[in-house]
Specification:
- The chain is globular.
- Helix content is about 35%, strand content about 10%.
- The protein has a single domain, classed as Beta-Lactamase (2-Layer Sandwich).
- It has four helices and two strands, in the order αββααα.
């Protein structure tokens, strides 16, 4: 098992995005937390799906 497999097989909500803000990994806990299945979110923009904002309240990169 590689480190990312262990990280995303946790019971805690976890997901990862690529440098363009597209979701590339979505675990089962994220499905329960956000209500979207992995097949619904992979390749989608994180900011668009989750209305993500940075620490200052600005839309995450890629939203402009």
């Amino acid at each position: 098992m590689i480190a990312t497999d262990k990280l995303f097989s946790t019971s805690e909500t976890a997901y990862a995005v690529d440098r363009n803000g597209r979701i590339v990994v979505w675990n089962q806990a994220a499905e329960r937390t956000f209500g979207f299945t992995e097949s619904q979110v992979l390749g989608k923009s994180c900011w668009e799906l989750l209305s993500a904002r940075d620490v200052f309240g600005n839309p995450s990169p890629g939203s402009s």
